[in-house]
Amino acid sequence: MGDALVVRNLSKRFGGLRAVQDLSFSVKENETVALIGPNGAGKTTSFNLITGFHRPDEGSVSAFGREIVGLKPYDICAHGLARTFQVAKPFGAMTVLANVMTGAFLRDKKLEVARARAREAIEFVGLSAKEHTPARDLTTIDQRRLEMARALATEPRLLLLDEVMAGLNPAEIDQAVALVGKLSKRGLTIIIVEHVMRAIMAVARHIVVLDHGQKIAEGSPKEVVANQDVVRAYLGPGYVHVAAPGE
Amino acid sequence: MLEVLAQVVVNGLLIGGIYALVSIGVTLIFGVVKIVNFAQGEFVMIGMYISFFLATYFGIDPLVSLAVSMPVLFIVGMLLQHFLIRRVLGLGDMPQIFLTFALSLLLMNLALMAFTANYRTVHTWYSDEAFHLGEIYVPIAKLVAFVLAMALSGILWVFLQTTDMGKAMRAAAQKPEVAMLMGINPNRVFAVATGVSLALAGAAGSLLMPFYPASPMAGQVFVLMAFVAVVLGTLGNVKGALIASLMMGVAESLGIQFVGADSGLIVVFLMLLLTLAFRPSGLAGGGAR
Amino acid sequence: MRVLRSSGALWLGLLTVVLLVLPLVVTSRFAIDIFIRVLLFAFIGVAWNLIGGYAKQLSLGHAAYFGLGAYTSTILQIDVGISPWIGMLAGGVVAMLASLPIGALCFRLRGPYFAISTIATAQVFMLLFLKFRDFAWGAEGTTIPNLGNAPLMMQFEAKAAYYYIALGLLAIGLAITYRIERSWMGYYLVAIGEDEDAAEAIGVNAMRIKRDIYMISAFLTALAGTFYVQYIYFIDPQTAFNFNISVEAALVSIVGGVGTLWGPVIGTVLLEATSALLQSWLGSSFGGIQLTVYSLILMAVILWRPTGLLSVLAEVYARIVRRGSAQTKKAVLDG
Q1: Among A169, A227, B112, C313, whose Cα sits 20 to 30 Å from the Cα of C190?
Q2: Which candidate from C195, C203, C334 shows the least CB-CB separation from A91?
């Protein structure tokens, strides 16, 4: 399997703040990678850099073999990268179906085709019953589902999910995890930014840990959880402990 | 030639001071409350009429009437924010734009009905006086207006930097969510910001009376200038608005002198278009997007 | 909604018949003049609505295109003898071309600052044409020669003819809006209007879409400009690039319902009817009364129902016709 995404030496400053510093990681095709880190670590900024909403000061991002730094968000989406936003951004005046159709139009401008594809995506996320509900009337969780359906309608190869599990109860987390699993089975490469450990452990094969804009650790879930730097970043120096034999 | 240029620059700076008061008001509201007040010019106009009536019926000098126009408009601003602006916050651009736009139309036309379109002037002992700085002719009324405008701007600056309310306003402008978390009541801050903004507009109106006629449409020119200055000076940036206003006063003056009498406006608009083309976020901004 | 659709077609048919027959039944010149005004400003509102209502790019400078259309056809007519029918199209093209650099500049700003830059643009045109004595008659403007009844030169003795032209323009505007609304472009426009960043994230090239719809809007607005000159036989910069035209273009949609097909029409009917009533009650004695009332209406709409009156009417209709079904179609677009 080739690389879906190769991020090299990505850096971005906002005024005096170094939001992302020299970030490098890669994601293989059909892999599910989690990007984690404490608040302010630069996770969403990384997403913004990758998807073209900010221009990096330095570094390169190569998606499916093509350099995408400098491309506009819509071209990047056309190339196969779709994302959701941390705070959902639905088109409030449109119904769920219309929202998702707007995404589907990227691949085919015909109304019936888009409608059919949109319905598929809506069913996939479980919003079929609310097809004709105006997006502004949806609950927060449904709005997140809508974000995902809309992103899926663009037929991405790589999906970037930004904190889709925030605020969900355990049952809902399980549903969301199942959804991500289904997406992976379809062949999608997925990068998720998450705080919910349970979900991360369940879906991610590989984890990249950020802190203050830099990558501080990378590896399998087991490796990362045991990594002292990671523990220190999240919980502070007091929690770092020496592993007992056999741990 | 040099004297002509110097005269033109002086003229420009003097009127630029008035533009500054109006544009600072606009940028303040925009920075703090995050709306664009299309009616700002009309509050200048109201300030003008207040001073006109005080001067005509009570013989009060316009500069003294600052003590009336400013507080009155401050209160008007707070009421405006409380009753109208608050209702459209967070609803998106359209309601905000058209609310203040409708207000602008309303005030202009109420003034038209109440006062007719006739120009009203106030003639003070210094309206026609000037002194000479070498070859340069400096009208006293305009000079006083400029000095007071700069003084008011300075006071505002100190207010923003040192007082709690001022800092709260700056916090609300830069990081509204954080400001709320720190216990700053946004509505109070917005109300004060709007009040201050309108008070500055009223001050501009009063300062104008000795040398500028009042009419229902008088505010229009100033608000257009103010908007361009706000864009040029970077949205929400008070210092930027001040500097940009002075620049625009000079640019307009240059245009009037060297291109033609009514080309001042064209020059100003050209400045706006050039700014948009090359530096859309203004002088203090970081470039596009 | 299916119930609405078939009865909708019926209503539309009825409306069409009424509109076609109206000038034959109501022959008062005064009344026909009002009808023409309503049709014309509804048309301008429809043109504005494409960019301002659907895509929420609130232009307050559409008078620029109105004036360009008016001047292009007039110049071609007087200097070159070309029929205003062709001049109308030429004016549309000129406006389209002008909208490219204007859009390129103004779309760099969002929200209110976009609005201001459009105001500035229209003002610049007015100032320029006030100065252009050589090829555009400067501040005094010009009248167009009265050729009596000259259909090929868009001049008619019967006022009803102008009525039908205006009606035709409105029909064209509505047809175009209808087609766009129901196509992928319509969805993209609303998406841009709702959340431009989110739209770009799903593949919408916002700049290009805005540019394209702006061109269409400019083209249509210019047609109205030509018509107006032919109707009042006069043109000057103050009239052609008048800020009030820009205001009304936006106002009728906002009052009637932004981003809807019939919104501008409803808004125009309401505002012009109010205006006509005011004029007949008060005459011209109160200089600012018309705009005062307009602004009060606008403020009331903004504070009470920002999406415009159409949604109110739709709700009332729904409540009457489909009692029990409270959930009315507030959404602009239903998949």
Answers
A1: C313
A2: C195
Mean pLDDT in consecutive groups of 10 residues from the start of chain B, 289 residues: 86 91 90 86 94 91 91 94 86 80 90 89 85 85 91 92 86 74 79 93 93 90 86 85 92 85 76 76 56
CA neighbor of C62 nearest in space, from C209, C240, C311, C290: C240
Nearest to C199 by CA among B277, B17, A53: A53
Average confidence (pLDDT) over C198-207: 95
Q: B266 — contact with chain C (CB < 8 Å)?
A: yes
Q: CA C287: distance to chain centroid? A: 25
Whether residues A91 and C190 touch (CB distance < 8 A) is answered with: yes
| All structural domains of chain A | 1-80+158-247 (3.40.50.300), 90-155 (no CATH)
The set of residues, in sequence order, having a beta carbon less than 8 Å from that of C157 and lying 6+ positions away, is: C148, C149
Average pLDDT score over residue span A235-245: 59
Split at pLDDT 50, 70, 90, the class of C333 is: very low
Is residue A20 within 8 Å of residue A213, measured between CB atoms? yes
Residue in chain C nearest A77 by alpha carbon: C203
Rounded to an integer, the average pLDDT of A14-18 is 83
Q: Is C127 on the interface with B (CB under 8 A)?
A: yes
Residue C299 reports pLDDT greater than 80? yes
C-alpha to C-alpha distance for C131 and C135, rounded to whole angstroms: 10
Selected residues 250-279 of chain C with any CB under 8 Å from a CB in chain B: 250, 254, 258
Classified as helix, coil or strand, C61 is: coil
Residue A179, chain C, CB below 8 Å: the answer is: no
Which of B88, B113, B270 faces C302 most closely, judged by CB atoms?
A: B88
Residue to substitute from B85, B101, B215, interface C, most C β-carbons within 10 A:
B101
Give the helix/strand (H/E) hosting A62. strand A58-63
Task: Report helix, strand or coil for C7.
Answer: helix
Our separate counts of H helices and E strands in chain B read 12, 2
Of residues C111, C247, C299, nearest to B93 (C-beta): C111
pLDDT tens digit sequence for C134-144:
778 888 888 88
